[in-house]
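User: Structure please.
Assistant: Input sequence and predicted structure:
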Amino acid sequence: MAKLTQEDLLAQFEEMTLIELSEFVKAFEEKFDVTAAAAVAVAAPGAPGAPAETVEEKDEFDVILTGAGEKKIQVIKVVRELTSLGLKEAKDLVDGTPKPVLEKVNKEAADKAAEALKGAGASVEVK
């Protein structure tokens, strides 16, 4: 059997009625155990009269130290690595928890900082 190209398949779908196409989609979903619901969800916002919902994704995060844990010295070292604080300032920050370590950083930097602090034994929140 000759392999059909994408253009050939699209030409065949163009000739089908909506009912035939709907039946094909159902058969395709059953055969390959998949669902085409995502395609419907993508098309829904473009429908006339549909309310436009925009979900704003945060692009600035704060890394807040909520507790130093048992390895306070390790946490102070990590705080110094993440910030430009001196030893005394970093110790004061760790002693005065909960306090922000980093403010208004991107998600990647916030995640890396949180991982480093958690690795040192600290309790951290990313907001």
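The mean pLDDT is 79.
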